[in-house]
């Protein structure tokens, strides 16, 4: 039987990055360093990360009929990603993200989503989700598109993964369609604003129907919550952060690939933690390590 692959449905943005000493305050002008342009967008970042661990990832996104979109598409093809589900929209621009990266590796991001928001429920209805083992979504597309995609993917037997970023309130009927939700510690309190801490917010999501909640904690690792309780996973503290943009996406894409190639959920999280730690040591949201490099770091623990 043909192996079912990983599908990422999500955003592709061109990241316009300036390094500064620190993130500027509102109303402040800061002189930064050199300007750099990278491929980004939470969806594309996850597809690239998944593909680095487990070849043959598929990507579904909306792009504009412009030079940014065309260049980006040929770059993704060059990285071995199946982009046959990427749709071009003639009347809008490819997504762009304006990003400030501070000297300590922290970042601030503003996204002009453009064609990412054009992807629709009917585009989800055109996908044969039964071809895929895992389907990943984020929130840089229209919420109704994400909700429809999650429902169809789960109905077709995929394991579903949602990155709730940029954070917004989720409709309660969406929760049972989510096998894994992967917020950071800020996002989880934004999607469950009635809770004061991540643990109670995670429990609330689980009682709403989500099966696993993985709260990423930056250099402190992550916490997994599910029917088995809570488990903490530490990260690799010795790695010096250069650029944290896309670290969460690298974690999630690698995690989905880990679910395919690892023997357990815990091992998939450990693999994702190592992959995200390596990503942070390099500039650019898609500067992801190979499976061999990830395994080498894991063996040092
Ligand atoms: O998660 C990082 C990503 O967020 C960047 O690549 C940027 O494009 C925004 O989508």
Description of the structure:
This protein is α/β, with parallel strands linked by helices and 301 residues long. The chain is built from nine helices and 14 strands. The strands form three sheets. Strands 4-1-9-10-11-12-13-14 form an eight-stranded mixed β-sheet, with helices on both faces. A hairpin with a 5-residue loop joins β12 and β13. α1 runs parallel beside α7, α7 packs antiparallel against α8 and α8 crosses α9. The radius of gyration is 18 Å and the shape is globular. It starts with a strand and ends with a helix. The mean pLDDT is 95. Bound molecules: alpha-D-ribofuranose.
| Main sheet characteristics | 8 strands, mixed
Order of helices and strands: EEEHEEHEEEHEHEEHHEEEHHH
User: Shape from CA axes?
Assistant: globular
- Bound small molecules, deduplicated: alpha-D-ribofuranose
Distance between the termini: 37 Å
List the helices and strands and how they pair.
Elements (H helix, E strand, L loop, with lengths): L4 E5 L3 E8 L14 E6 L1 H12 L4 E3 L1 E3 L2 H12 L8 E3 L5 E8 L4 E6 L8 H5 L6 E6 L5 H13 L3 E4 L17 E2 L5 H5 L6 H10 L4 E5 L5 E5 L2 E5 L13 H15 L3 H16 L10 H9 L2
Parallel strand pairs: 1-4, 1-9, 2-7, 5-6, 9-10, 10-11, 11-12
Antiparallel strand pairs: 2-3, 7-8, 12-13, 13-14
Bound molecules: alpha-D-ribofuranose.
Alpha-D-ribofuranose binds next to strand 2, helix 1, strand 8 and helix 7.
């Amino acid at each position: 039987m043909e192996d079912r692959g990983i599908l990422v449905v999500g955003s592709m943005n061109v990241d316009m990055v300036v390094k500064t000493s620190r993130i500027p305050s509102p109303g402040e002008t800061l002189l930064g360093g050199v300007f750099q342009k990278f491929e980004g967008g939470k969806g594309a970042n996850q597809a690239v990360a998944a593909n680095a661990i487990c070849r043959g990832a598929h990507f579904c996104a909306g792009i504009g009929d412009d030079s940014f979109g065309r260049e980006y598409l040929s770059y993704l093809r060059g990285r071995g990603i199946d982009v046959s589900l990427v749709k071009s929209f003639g009347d809008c621009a490819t997504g762009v993200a304006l990003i400030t990266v501070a000297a300590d590796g922290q970042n601030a991001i503003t996204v002009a989503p453009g064609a990412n928001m054009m992807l629709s429920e009917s585009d989800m209805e055109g996908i044969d989700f039964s071809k895929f083992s895992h389907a990943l979504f984020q929130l840089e597309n229209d919420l109704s598109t994400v909700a429809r995609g999650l429902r169809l993917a789960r109905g077709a037997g995929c394991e579903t993964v949602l990155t709730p970023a940029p954070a917004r309130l989720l409709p309660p009927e969406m929760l049972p369609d989510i096998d894994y939700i992967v917020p950071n510690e800020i996002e989880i309190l934004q999607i469950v604003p009635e809770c004061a801490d991540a643990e109670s917010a995670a429990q609330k999501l689980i009682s709403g129907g989500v099966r696993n909640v993985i709260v990423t904690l930056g250099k402190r690792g992550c916490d997994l919550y599910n029917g088995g309780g809570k488990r903490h996973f530490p990260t690799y503290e010795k790695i010096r952060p250069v650029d944290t943009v896309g670290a969460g996406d690298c974690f999630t894409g690698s995690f989905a690939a880990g679910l395919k190639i690892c023997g357990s959920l815990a091992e998939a999280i450990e693999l994702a933690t190592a992959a995200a730690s390596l990503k942070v040591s390099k500039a650019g949201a898609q500067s992801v390590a190979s499976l061999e490099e990830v395994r080498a770091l894991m063996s040092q623990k």
